[in-house]
C-alpha cells in the first residue's frame, strides 16, 4: 500500500476509534457533555497519532538496529509516546490549565490508561499493516520469456549475503530491486516480495556493488535490468519479470555509467 493511502486509512481509523471511545466514555469522560465528548475523543486520538507515529518510527528503526524483540519495543514505544499525550489530555481535562488534580495524583492513572490504549491501537495497526506481506507467486508477475540475446545475470558479490539472509526462503534470493515503503524496504525477487524492517540506505550499503540506487525510493540490481525506456519526460528501467522502476534525473549519470550500452539515455 502506498504511503499516502496508508496514511489516509490510518487517519480514518483514528477518527473512527475516537468516535467509539466517545460513545463508550472511558477514563472518567462520562461526566462530559455528549457533544463535547464526541469532539474531544477524536481530537485526542488524532493527537495521539501525531505523537505516536514518529516515536513508533524511531522505535522500529532502533529495533532493527539493535535486534530488540517486537514484544519489548511495543511497550517501550507506548511508554515514551504516552507521556506527552497524557499531559495534553490532563491539560484539557483541567479546563486548559495545569491543575493539581490532573497533574497530581490522577496523572499516573491517566498515563497508564493512555499507555494501555496506545498499545492496543499499535497492535491493531500491526495487525492491519503487517511487516511481512504474503508472498506473491512468481506466476502472478507474468515474467517475460528469456531470449537468447538476454544478458546473463552478474554473479552476486560476497557482501550481499548479509542482506540476502534476511529474505524469506519462499521468495528465493534472485533479488531484482528494493522499494522503500514507509519505514520498511520491500524486496522484490523473481519469486515474490517481502517487507523488511530497515532503511533503504542501509540495505543498499549491505548490498554494496550488486546494484545501485536509481531513485530515492528504489534500488536496482545490475543483473535485473533488461532495458531502459522513456515515457514522456520520465526514464524507467524495465526489469526481468516486467517491473518498471523510475530513475531520478540526478541518478541518470550513474545509470549511464553502470549500464553502458544498455542505458541509451
Strand percentage lies at 15-25%
Q: Quick one: overall form?
A: elongated
Number of helices: 7
Q: How are the strands ordered across the major sheet?
A: 3-2-1-5-4
Structural class: alpha+beta
> Which stretches are low in confidence, meaning pLDDT under 50 for 5 or more residues running?
131-151, 153-158
Number of strands: 8
Structurally, the number of domains stands at 2
Largest sheet, described in full? 5 strands, antiparallel
Query: Could you state the order of secondary-structure elements as H and E?
Result: HHHHHEEEHEEEEEH
Gyration radius, in Å: 24 Å
Helix content: 40-55%
Description:
By secondary structure, this protein is of the alpha+beta class. It has two domains: about 130 residues, no CATH class; about 120 residues, Beta Barrel (OB fold (Dihydrolipoamide Acetyltransferase, E2P)), CATH 2.40.50.1020. About 45% of the residues lie in helices and about 15% in strands. Strands 3-2-1-5-4 form a five-stranded antiparallel sheet. The chain is elongated and about 70 Å long. The chain starts with a helix and ends in a 6-residue tail after the last helix.
Distinctive features:
265 residues, alpha+beta, OB fold (Dihydrolipoamide Acetyltransferase, E2P), 2 domains, five-stranded antiparallel β-sheet, three-stranded antiparallel β-sheet
List the SSEs and their pairings:
Layout: H1 3-24, H2 34-66, H3 70-93, H4 105-128, H5 161-164, E1 175-181, E2 184-189, E3 192-196, H6 200-207, E4 211-215, E5 218-221, E6 225-231, E7 234-239, E8 244-247, H7 252-259
Antiparallel strand pairs: 1-2, 1-5, 2-3, 4-5, 6-7, 7-8
Helix pairs in contact: 1-2, 2-3, 3-4
Amino acid at each position: 500500500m502506498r504511503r499516502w493511502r496508508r496514511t489516509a486509512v490510518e487517519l480514518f481509523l483514528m477518527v473512527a476509534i475516537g468516535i467509539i471511545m466517545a460513545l463508550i466514555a472511558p477514563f472518567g469522560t462520562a461526566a462530559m457533555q455528549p457533544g463535547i465528548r464526541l469532539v474531544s475523543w477524536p481530537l485526542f486520538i488524532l493527537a495521539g497519532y501525531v505523537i505516536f507515529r514518529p516515536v513508533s518510527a524511531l522505535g522500529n528503526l532502533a529495533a532493527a538496529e539493535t535486534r530488540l524483540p517486537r514484544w519489548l519495543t511495543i511497550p517501550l514505544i507506548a511508554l515514551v509516546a504516552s507521556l506527552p499525550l497524557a499531559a495534553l489530555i490532563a491539560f484539557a481535562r483541567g479546563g486548559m490549565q495545569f491543575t493539581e488534580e490532573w497533574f497530581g495524583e490522577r496523572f499516573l492513572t491517566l498515563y497508564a490508561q493512555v499507555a494501555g490504549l496506545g498499545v492496543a491501537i499499535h497492535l491493531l495497526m500491526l495487525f492491519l499493516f503487517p511487516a511481512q506481506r504474503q508472498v506473491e507467486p512468481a506466476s502472478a508477475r507474468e515474467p517475460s520469456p528469456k531470449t537468447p540475446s538476454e544478458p546473463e545475470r552478474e554473479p552476486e558479490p560476497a557482501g550481499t549475503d548479509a542482506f540476502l539472509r534476511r529474505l524469506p526462503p519462499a521468495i528465493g534470493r534472485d533479488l531484482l530491486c528494493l522499494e522503500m515503503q514507509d519505514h520498511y524496504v520491500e524486496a522484490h525477487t523473481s519469486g515474490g516480495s517481502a517487507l523488511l524492517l530497515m532503511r533503504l540506505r542501509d540495505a543498499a550499503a549491505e548490498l554494496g556493488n550488486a546494484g545501485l540506487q536509481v531513485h530515492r525510493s528504489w534500488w536496482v540490481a545490475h543483473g535485473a535490468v533488461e532495458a531502459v525506456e522513456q515515457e514522456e519526460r520520465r526514464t524507467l528501467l524495465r526489469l526481468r519479470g516486467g517491473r518498471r522502476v523510475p530513475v531520478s534525473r540526478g541518478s541518470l549519470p550513474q545509470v549511464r555509467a553502470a549500464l553502458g550500452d544498455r542505458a541509451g539515455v
